Amino acid sequence: MERYLWGLFFLLVLVAHTKAEESAASIVKKADDLLRGKTQVGTYTMTVVRPQWQRTMRFRFWSQGTDKSFILMLAPAKERGVTFLKLGREMWNYIPKINRAIKIPPSMMLQSWMGSDFTNDDLVKESSVVHDYTHTLLGRERIRGFEAYKVELKPRPEAAVVWDRIIEWIRVGDYVPLKAEYYNERGERVRTLFFLD
Fold first, then answer.
1. Start-to-end C-alpha separation, the chain
2. Residue range 14-41: average pLDDT?
3. pLDDT tens, 44-86?
């Protein structure tokens, strides 16, 4: 009888752990679906901060599903009019100063985008936080006055991704992403992304 109770206890623990994992994956999927949607249009401001300098860029972003996206640089003035186009697994960059479109090879998808910590892959979302990572719910925290799920993402063994670990804070209730931290293979935080109005 005691053996039966211990077996039942371990089964309940396993089921509870599985439910938490499913819950974390569901939270990440809902947040990702909210960001991507069937179509997406937005104007974004990105500030790159380094010890010796700071640079702010503004751009307009359009996407349709996961296969089509377009980025138009608005600022700074020297980058105005530069565009990026993704169709399927291919990406091009148009530079108005030289009136030329350049195809970006797959080998450059993990290169820095416009001198930032973002990669070309980050902008066109070639890798997927839903499919390329496992998800663990670490708990809840308050971020900027909002109750948020804190979720850890670790790459699946077969996934070709840049980040060794991502921590996301996703608002409870409506699944709006609030913050994400990106870590390299040495466990160093390389990038922090804040989602603001």
1. 58
2. 75
3. 998 888 899 999 999 999 998 878 999 999 999 999 999 999 9
Domains and CATH numbers, the chain: 39-124 (2.50.20.10), 128-194 (no CATH)
pTM of the model: 0.72
Q: Map tokens 């992403």 to a residue.
A: 177
Task: Find where tokens 């010890």 sit.
Answer: 51
Class of residue 59 by CB neighbours under 10 A (exposed 0-12, middle 13-18, buried 19+): buried
18 burial via Cβ count (<10 Å: 0-12, 13-18, 19+): exposed
H/E/C letters for each residue in 24-40? HHHHHHHHHHHHHCCEE
Task: Please check whether residue 165 is in contact with residue 153, taking contact to mean a CB–CB distance below 8 angstroms.
Answer: yes
SS3 state of residue 195? coil
Beta strand ranges found along the chain (DSSP E): 39-49, 54-64, 68-75, 83-87, 90-95, 100-104, 133-143, 146-155, 165-171, 177-183, 189-194
CB burial readout 131-168, b (16+ within 10 A) else e: ebbebebeeeeebeeeebbbbbbbbeeeeebbbbbbbb
Ramachandran class of 115: left when φ > 0, alpha when ψ lies in -120 to 50, beta otherwise: left
Q: How many CB atoms lie within 10 A of CB 44?
A: 13
